[in-house]
Fold each of these.
Amino acid sequence: DGGITQSPKYLFRKEGQNVTLSCEQNLNHDAMYWYRQDPGQGLRLIYYSQIVNDFQKGDIAEGYSVSREKKESFPLTVTSAQKNPTAFYLCASKGRSNEKLFFGSGTQLSVL
Amino acid sequence: QQQVKQSPQSLIVQKGGISIINCAYENTAFDYFPWYQQFPGKGPALLIAIRPDVSEKKEGRFTISFNKSAKQFSLHIMDSQPGDSATYFCAASTKADYKLSFGAGTTVTVRA
C-alpha cells in the first residue's frame, strides 16, 4: 500500500527541547516537502528536498532543521529556537514527472 | 506575505446548493493552479487542477474557472453534499520549481 507515513500523530514538546518528526514515503518520489499549518493561515513551506543529500529552505525555515540521507525519509527537527512550534505539520512528496503533491496525515505538535 | 489570496474564510451551503470559492494571485509566472481538499485531522488531497491555457475545467461536480487577465481562479462545487464538508485550499506554482504557494483555506459546511 503506497503512501506517506508521518509519525507520531501527536507530539508534545517541553521548553528548550528539540523534537523530531518522522516522514517516510514508499512512492519512489524524488521531491519531499515539509509544511506547517496554522488555523486561518493555510500551509507554509518550511523545507524541501528535490534529491537525496540536498535540501533548501522554504518560507519559514528559522527554528527548524532537516536531513535527507535516504530517498524514502525526510525527518524534520523542531529546535528550541522555534519559539512558537504549536501547529499541524504536514509532509508531502512529488514524483519527477508529475506535479501532484501527495500528503501524509500530519503530526500535531503542542507545547507542554 | 501570502502570494495567493483566498475567500471566503468559511461558507455554509444547503444540500444541493452551489459552493463558490475564489482565489487571486499576483505572480504572473504561476502556471499551475491546483485545489486541495482536507478533512479534519488528515492531510490535503488533490481535488482538481488547471493550467492557464484553458478557462475552465470540470471533473464531476467540481469545476475550476480561470481568468488569466484578472489573475483570478475559482472553485465551484455543484449539487453540494454533506460529504463535501471540508476545508478547501487553492494553490499556485511555477514551472521552475513546483513549490506550491497556498491560500489560507475555506471551510465549507454543507447542511442536510
Amino acid sequence: NAGVTQTPKFQVLKTGQSMTLQCAQDMNHNSMYWYRQDPGMGLRLIYYSASEGTTDKGEVPNGYNVSRLNKREFSLRLESAAPSQTSVYFCASSEQGAETQYFGPGTRLLVL
Amino acid sequence: KNEVEQSPQNLTAQEGEFITINCSYSVGISALHWLQQHPGGGIVSLFMLSSGKKKHGRLIATINIQEKHSSLHITASHPRDSAVYICAVSQRGGSNYKLTFGKGTLLTVNP
C-alpha cells in the first residue's frame, strides 16, 4: 500500500497562476484533509472532507477550493496564487470517526 | 495564546543523551498525539494517548490530564532521531475529530 500520495512534490508559480494539488489514498478512508505548514506556525487546516461528496472549510480556507473526486482522491485548487500561499501543503486521511490521521509526503509550493 | 504550546522550540543533544520535549494545552481534548517529521519529509504518528503512558522502543510518551501536560522522552538518543516533533490535540467535532497542532520542536542529535 502506498498510503497517502501527493503530486507534485514541488512547484513554483507566478502570482496569479492557478494550479491543483492532487492527493490520493489507498486505505479506504472516508475522511480527508488539507493542511498548510508555515515556518513558526503549527499545521493549519484548510479544508476537509468527512466523507465522499462532502467538503467543509477549515481554519484558513480563503484563496482555496477543494474537490472530493471520489473516495480515494481529494484535490486542492489555487485559482489565483498569491505569495502568501507559499507554504508546504500536506494531505491527510483517516477512518471516519478515528482520531489518527495519516499524512502524505507534502507539496512544497513557492509563489513568486 | 496558542491552544497547544511546545517547549523547547529547538533542542540540541549529544548522542546517548536522554531527551524530553514538553507539550501543554489549554482546551478539553479527546486525545493527545505526538508526531515526527524528518527534514523535507512527511509526518508520521508516533503516539496517541488519552491517559497514562505509552512506550515504543526508545520513545516514551506520558500525559497528565489534570495538568493538561504531556511529555515525549527519548532514551539513548541517536542522530537518526533528529527531526521535528509535533504535539497535537484532538477534539470531537460532529462525526470527526479536529486536530490542533503545536509549532513543533526541532531536535538535533549530534554524534
